[in-house]
Amino acid sequence: MAHQPRWTMSQVTELFNKPLIDLLFEAQQIHRQHFDPRQVQVSTLLSIKTGACPEDCKYCPQSARYKTGLEAERLMEVEQVLESARQAKNAGSTRFCMGAAWKNPNDRDMPYLEQMVKGVKALGLESCMTLGTLTDSQAQRLAEAGLDYYNHNLDTSPEFYGNIITTRTYQERLDTLDKVRDAGIKVCSGGIVGLGESVKDRAGLLLQLANLPTPPESVPINMLVKVKGTPLADNDDVDAFDFIRTIAIARIMMPTSYVRLSAGREQMNEQTQAMCFMAGANSIFYGWQAADHAEPGRGQRPAAVPQAGDQPAADGGAGRRQ
What we know:
By secondary structure, the chain is an alpha/beta fold.
């Protein structure tokens, strides 16, 4: 496998300073080298354990530290999760992600998590989980169950990280990614735009991701969902062109990764979403069942997909070039 190029901050800064029309052209050219630009993978996220998280992530309504009106729920039964996966598949999703509001899973929960993975795989869906930090043995158990992807976001740059989270270090996040990679699971890792970070911080996040020993196969780029009761509820809105620029640079820096429009997509108008596809995004979440919000139009094909000339991928991928 060809070694991915190493990026410097000056190179990434140059991309952020590039005229947008030139940046989009470069990103689209790179995207077409590795993917069918008309194909978009459709994913569904299910919160399998909601609320009462001990972490203090300032953007997250699942934290027990903030009064958001969210009621804590126990880990869902395996069959409940699989029924949601069946519904997601029937609605057009080819990828099913399961998230739990934990700092880390307990070993007593692992048999249930393994059954969920096996059941989702048996439905012919690509599987992903996001459960917090993992031990080596937990990562190995998930791998043996057949988990395709493990999501653990870096969220922002190392320099800005302490302004957002204090209960988990940046290095702990990197260590978890190493454990996932060592277990043979594909890495899903990205960040959030709109936390109050600077352009330099956005560049720093993408630099960290692209310069991992192996870049993530999946890179979710989230727009902050502002939830009343969280410390970031009154943050300024993200400029649409700034978000599109971040998508384009992620595509340029990680040309073979899936770049996913994740949280916040439902806040974007169709024109912004279409431009994100032009910038190189090739996966979306819909049928969202996370704790902070339910996405409108659940079970309906997102309008921006056909408007952009894109098609939901039928094979579980997004038209990767062979």
